[in-house]
Specification:
Blueprint lengths: L5 H13 L7 E8 L2 E8 L6 H15 L4 H8 L4 H7 L4 H28 L1
Antiparallel strand pairs: 1-2
Length: about 120
């Protein structure tokens, strides 16, 4: 693949994103710049960038659970796990919820095995 600069990559990405119907709706983004709150409204596709794709990839792959954090970090280029978790905006509450779901799944599997053994 030929190397291109981020600016060109983002231009191409927005051309492709513009063809997606659900990215054509307008949204308002509020930002603080120089201590002033600014907001502007544009179609969603105009906010697409290589960074958006990188963060979405990292967050979605982490949520899917198919790859461990080291594998995802090898793609995203994060050196430490701490910076990776900060990047995907993983909160302690998110971690607790995920652990709770895993324990509930484990308990459900154990209950199914126990019920099966009782039936036999």
């Amino acid at each position: 693949m030929p190397k291109i600069c981020n600016q060109k990559y983002n231009e191409y990405l927005q051309i492709v994103a513009k063809t997606c119907k659900n990215l054509q709706q307008e949204i308002t983004i509020a930002q603080i710049r120089g201590g002033k709150k600014l907001s502007h409204t544009d179609p969603k596709y105009t906010f697409a960038s290589s960074h958006t794709a990188r963060r979405s990839f990292a967050t979605n792959e982490f949520a899917a659970g198919d790859l461990d954090t080291g594998e995802i970090r090898s793609v995203t280029g994060h050196k430490s796990e701490k910076s990776f978790y900060k990047y995907i905006r993983e909160t302690p509450k998110d971690v607790a919820q995920r652990i709770k779901q895993k324990f509930e799944l484990r308990e459900a599997k154990q209950a199914a095995i126990t019920n099966h053994l009782k039936a036999v």
